[in-house]
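[Automated response] Your request has been received and processed.

Submitted sequence:
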Amino acid sequence: MVVVTGQSKASATPDDAMSSSDAEDDFQEPATPTATQAGQALPLLPQQFPEVVPLNVGGMFFTTRLSTLRRYEDTMLAAMFSGRHYIPTDAEGRYFIDRDGTYFGDILNFLRSGDLPPRERVRSVYKEAQYYSIGPLLDNLEDIQPLKGEKVRQAFLGLMPYYKDHLERIIEIAKLRAMQRKARFAKLKVCVFKEEMPITPYECPHFNSLRFERSESEAKLFEHHCEVDVSFGPWEAVADVYDLLHCIVTDLSARGIAVDHQCIGVCDKHLINHYYCKRPIYEFKITWW
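Generated structure:
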């Protein structure tokens, strides 16, 4: 029996080598790539947009000029419709933006003619303007109510670096107590005080002079923690205790937490001689349902 085997490349003779002309004759054009291969291998061409652009923003339909979307070059919309990025279209050929379109009309009205939304929509439109990075609209909204007032309020709250932490503590304590008692609501004590130094009613006329006459060792006698769950203060500003209480209730309410509060007295801790704490104590009632 004779067994015939193919020659290995190593054993091939120079005569068997393919000449350059043979290689050209045997060269074949590659097969036409599939759609998947083309998408992987070929870069997408710049997308062309019509002058009048139909839009589908989260299921809401809009129509505007291309120049309106490109009004401010540093915005997300200008970048999306610059041609450098691919924008998908829906079944009707509208360019699709996967975003809630409730306030997109307010965005377009500003891009068209500089119109600002009514006051009740300012906060929501501001959030959308942040998403689309529309700087001029953000600047305009920050200069009107309620955002202008919020900037002033935040400047006041900036005097208390642990304000947000204290809010979280109020929520956590109220939640824990309600769960432990299987109750609909929970109560906790909160101290809100503006002045750092303790006073009594008859010391008020002499307060400014007395506070500078105390030595460092005597001042330490006034440092104490009232027997409460959370304590806010002190701070130096015109805003008073009632202003801070309003901030606390407003921020808790913004998180969907129902809260009532009332003053239930003052801290009567005796410090030294005839000095008592006298910081106001408030009872907060957090209702969960």
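Summary generated for your ticket: The first strand starts at residue 52 and ends at 57. Residues 52-144 form a domain with the Potassium Channel Kv1.1; Chain A fold (CATH 3.30.710.10).
If you did not submit this request, please reply to this message.
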